[in-house]
């Protein structure tokens, strides 16, 4: 009796295993739909392609996962490598790529990585919101006619941030649906969350059926990430919101607080992995979501998803999907990634996407350590529990270990490593390196410790990890950890205390680049400068799921309505929210015009009047911040924009060797070089002598105007514009100019191969400065 079911299971599994070994999901992409076929005809066309390579009708039908039929023409199917290669040889096929169980992960450093808090201060809305002014918001009607679509982990619809109280009717152009599923039905959509769909076929093809104790097969967000990003882009204004322990009390609000949200759940938990390892999102699922989002009628797409490094355009469902979205004038904003500060790490580099880096806001969460010798060391935390203001015995973890702990792990407070006898009632210094930070605190607590100091290792750089620990704690820099070690060595009875966390606002300098924000240069096309822009991504408060703790750690059972989170995942929806407002104010502007407005008005000076810095305090470069820190008020009135159409992007693709992705378009025999894409920034890689670049600006300001050219060339490079004065006599007028970029002979020999130098140029009149960063490397 016991054996029979086992055998049955094995028999059932065997064919599946065989299938897994040779067959994978491939995406077969034909480009843009010609628009002539009805939906059912398209599916049968896809089916007929499958019939070419499959033996039977049934096999062809069973292998098909998705038929993309709105804007994107293509399908996802289970194929053998041979079947895939036969399909890729067909004339009409643009590309075929295998959907690996790629480590697509949400761009989030673990929630406890940079948690923050804020005192009552009239709010901790997204940072820019404070600067944005009611005028801009009211001009944009708070975004109420704009639909922001998000590809993410779903949404927690009960959050007050998604209330539709007092909202007007849903825009008539909306064609989306509210897909029902476990714990999510049509009552969970309203006039705020106007659409919800989920995509799981690719995930289940790879991992098998969703483990329903980990997530719901519906748009309900059990992770928190999707709730956070969607409320950052378009959450309502909620008074008296707060993070864990009542910290950060104030008003929370999204960038476009009346914008409509359309939720596309594409990311799911990785079986056998902890939530803190993030989710996974499959190519074919995202591709389907983008195709639907375009057809549903979203105006802005916010995608805080990417790979660890950039993918080629035709193997990248976000890049291709975004291109189809751009054709319908949808603005697509994506996270640059969290793989910084290493160079060449950014993802989502396609020039039709807004690629967003992450930076700090002007607040810190100070919780100093005071040592028995009177020394005070700066620390940061958002831990709700507090020590009494008196001295406690202080020990270094490596001196209080139990059992067999290797020497290099001894200071790290790994689970089970501390001796309760030696730790009880004491403050323990633990070093970062291996293990989860939150777990180090839990280990100190387990061993009876009363408080915990988390020391950066040398490799952690200058960014402190603000965590909501489960016992009184603070985090300190490496140099300060060394000071504590020296103090412990210097005395028989070392003592210390941790002063409870306190928010300090208007800290300087701010903003500064987050160390984790992925950096350029762009490895897919070094002639396109990326990222495009930076926005707040460090310690951002937004709505949270009711089913995940603020630290996402399994041993943490706390529940919060709002949570503070860091990552380029958080900065991307800030830009999406701003784009929604711009879209509302300028409904006729193209996606490129909206991006240009955001980029050319971005700030490169911080709140002490100096250039933006990295976490280390060094000056940052455009490979960290792109054009600078976004400034939505200025972006609403940019003066001039660098526009680009869908056709311009097709021409650009010709120039980088991608055959046409639109059956109605043929590449010219000599396409323009990629540096001539009408981009609001300028990157020239491997300059040898002189390059001339053409750009065209459109006057979006008042009628008559004169703009003058100025530049600060990169060291050793000369920059000239012809003409250097632009005269406009009406709004909408376009003017072209040529920029000549020349390497001075004497510098050619001095430059290291492929080392970049940076500068900028501007067009300005009395009201506007239209600024473009320049990055040049020499051959
Ligand atoms: C949706 O679910 C809720 C809670 O289970 C239930 O009260 C409500 O009637 C459902 N609505 C619809 C339209 O099914
Ligand atoms: C589903 O997830 C739970 C919780 O992690 C785990 O205990 C269980 O074994 C999983 N079930 C399957 C079938 O993998
Ligand atoms: C905010 O909420 C807290 C706890 O929910 C409450 O004690 C406090 O009175 C509220 N403050 C305001 C201004 O509503
Ligand atoms: C991109 O395509 C080129 C040429 O086909 C190939 O050499 C390169 O490895 C690809 N890069 C990635 C990241 O797939
Ligand atoms: C301690 O662990 C190391 C490596 O795990 C092992 O080589 C060593 O024999 C162990 N020592 C004792 C005393 O158990
Ligand atoms: C503290 O003393 C120990 C043992 O004498 C030594 O190994 C260590 O380097 C000292 N640390 C500092 C920071 O002086
Ligand atoms: C730069 O251009 C000169 C003249 O066209 C050529 O001789 C030289 O090989 C080029 N250098 C590189 C590094 O491409």
Automatic annotation (TrEMBL):
The keyword S-adenosyl-L-methionine does not apply. Its main location: secreted. Residues 25-103 form the Inhibitor I9 domain. It is found in: Secreted, Extracellular space, Apoplast. GO terms for biological process: proteolysis; response to symbiotic bacterium; response to symbiotic fungus. The active site is at residues 152, 225, 569. Residues 1-20 form the signal peptide. GO terms for molecular function: serine-type endopeptidase activity. Residues 143-628 form the Peptidase S8/S53 domain. Pfam families: fn3_6, Inhibitor_I9, PA, Peptidase_S8. It comes from Ziziphus jujuba (Chinese jujube). This is Subtilisin-like protease SBT5.6. Required for arbuscular mycorrhiza (AM) development during AM symbiosis with AM fungi (e.g. Glomeromycota intraradices). InterPro entries: PA_domain, Peptidase_S8/S53_dom, Peptidase_S8/S53_dom_sf, Peptidase_S8_Ser-AS, Peptidase_S8_subtilisin-rel, Peptidases_S8_3, S8pro/Inhibitor_I9, S8pro/Inhibitor_I9_sf. One of its GO terms (cellular component) is apoplast. The keyword DNA-binding does not apply. Residues 392-483 form the PA domain. Belongs to the peptidase S8 family. Keywords: Apoplast, Hydrolase, Protease, Secreted, Serine protease, Signal. Residues 676-776 form the Subtilisin-like protease fibronectin type-III domain.
């Amino acid at each position: 009796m016991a054996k029979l079911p086992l055998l049955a299971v094995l028999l059932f599994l065997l064919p599946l295993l065989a299938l897994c070994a040779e067959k994978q999901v491939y995406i077969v992409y034909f480009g843009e739909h010609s628009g002539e076929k009805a939906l059912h005809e398209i599916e049968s066309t896809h089916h007929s392609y499958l019939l070419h390579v499959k033996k039977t009708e049934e096999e062809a039908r069973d292998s098909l996962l998705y038929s993309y039929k709105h804007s994107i023409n293509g399908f996802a199917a289970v194929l053998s490598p041979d079947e895939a290669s036969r399909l890729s040889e067909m004339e009409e096929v643009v590309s075929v790529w295998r959907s690996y169980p790629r480590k697509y992960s949400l761009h989030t450093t673990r929630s406890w990585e940079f948690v923050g808090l804020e005192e009552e201060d009239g709010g901790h809305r997204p940072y820019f919101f404070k600067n944005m002014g009611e005028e801009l918001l009211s001009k944009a009607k708070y975004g109420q006619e704009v639909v922001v679509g998000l590809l993410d982990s779903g949404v927690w619809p009960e959050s007050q941030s998604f209330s539709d109280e007092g909202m007007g009717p849903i825009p008539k152009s909306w064609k989306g649906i509210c897909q029902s599923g476990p714990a999510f039905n049509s009552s969970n959509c309203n006039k705020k969350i106007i659409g919800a769909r989920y995509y799981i076929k690719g995930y289940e093809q790879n991992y098998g059926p969703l483990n329903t104790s980990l997530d719901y097969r519906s748009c309900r967000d059990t992770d928190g990430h999707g709730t956070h990003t969607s409320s950052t882009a378009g959450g309502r204004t909620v008074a008296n919101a707060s993070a864990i322990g009542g910290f950060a009390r104030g008003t929370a609000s999204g960038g476009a607080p009346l914008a409509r949200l359309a939720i596309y759940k594409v990311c799911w938990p990785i079986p056998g992995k902890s939530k803190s390892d993030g989710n996974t999102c499959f190519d074919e699922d995202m591709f389907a979501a983008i195709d639907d989002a375009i057809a549903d009628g979203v105006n802005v797409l916010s995608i805080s998803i990417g790979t660890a490094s950039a993918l080629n355009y035709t193997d990248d469902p976000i890049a291709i999907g975004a291109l189809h979205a751009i054709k319908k004038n949808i603005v697509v904003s994506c996270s640059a990634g969290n793989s910084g500060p290493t160079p060449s790490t950014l993802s989502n580099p396609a020039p039709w996407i807004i690629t967003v880096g992450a930076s700090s806001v002007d607040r810190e969460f100070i919780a100093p350590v005071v040592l028995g010798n009177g020394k005070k060391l700066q620390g940061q935390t958002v831990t709700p529990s507090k020590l009494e203001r008196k001295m406690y015995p202080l020990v270094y973890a490596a001196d209080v270990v139990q059992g067999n702990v290797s020497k290099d792990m001894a200071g790290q407070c790994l689970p089970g490593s501390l001796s309760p006898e030696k730790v009880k009632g004491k403050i323990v210094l633990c070093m970062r390196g291996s293990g989860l930070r939150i777990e180090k605190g839990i280990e100190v607590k387990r061993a009876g410790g009363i408080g915990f100091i988390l020391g950066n290792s040398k490799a952690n750089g200058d960014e402190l990890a603000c965590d909501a620990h489960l016992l009184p704690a603070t985090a300190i820099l490496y140099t300060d950890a060394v000071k504590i070690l020296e103090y412990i060595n210097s005395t028989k009875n070392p003592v210390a205390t941790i002063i409870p966390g306190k928010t300090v606002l208007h800290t300087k300098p701010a903003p500064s680049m987050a160390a984790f924000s992925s950096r350029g240069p762009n490895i897919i096309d070094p002639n396109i400068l990326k990222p495009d822009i930076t926005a707040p991504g460090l310690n951002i408060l937004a709505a949270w799921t009711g089913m995940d703790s603020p630290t996402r750690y399994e041993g943490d059972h706390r529940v919060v309505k709002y949570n503070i989170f860091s990552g380029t995942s958080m900065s991307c929806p800030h830009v999406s929210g701003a784009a929604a407002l711009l879209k509302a104010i300028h409904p006729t502007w193209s996606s490129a015009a909206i991006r240009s407005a955001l980029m050319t008005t971005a700030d490169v000076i911080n709140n002490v009047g100096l250039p933006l810095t990295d976490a280390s305090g060094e000056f940052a470069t455009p490979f960290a911040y792109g054009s600078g820190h976004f400034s939505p008020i200025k972006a609403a009135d940019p003066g001039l924009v660098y526009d680009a159409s869908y056709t311009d992007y097709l021409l650009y693709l010709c120039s980088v060797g991608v055959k046409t992705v639109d059956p109605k378009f043929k590449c010219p025999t000599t396409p323009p070089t990629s540096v001539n894409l009408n981009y609001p920034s300028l990157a020239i890689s491997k300059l040898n002598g002189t390059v001339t670049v053409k750009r065209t600006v459109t006057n979006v300001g008042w009628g008559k105007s004169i703009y003058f050219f100025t530049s600060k060339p990169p060291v050793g490079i000369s920059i000239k514009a012809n003409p250097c004065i632009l005269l406009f006599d009406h709004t909408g007028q376009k003017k072209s100019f040529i920029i000549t970029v020349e390497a001075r002979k004497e510098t050619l020999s001095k430059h290291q191969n492929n080392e970049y130098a940076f500068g900028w140029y501007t067009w300005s009149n009395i009201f506007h400065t239209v600024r473009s960063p320049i990055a040049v490397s020499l051959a």
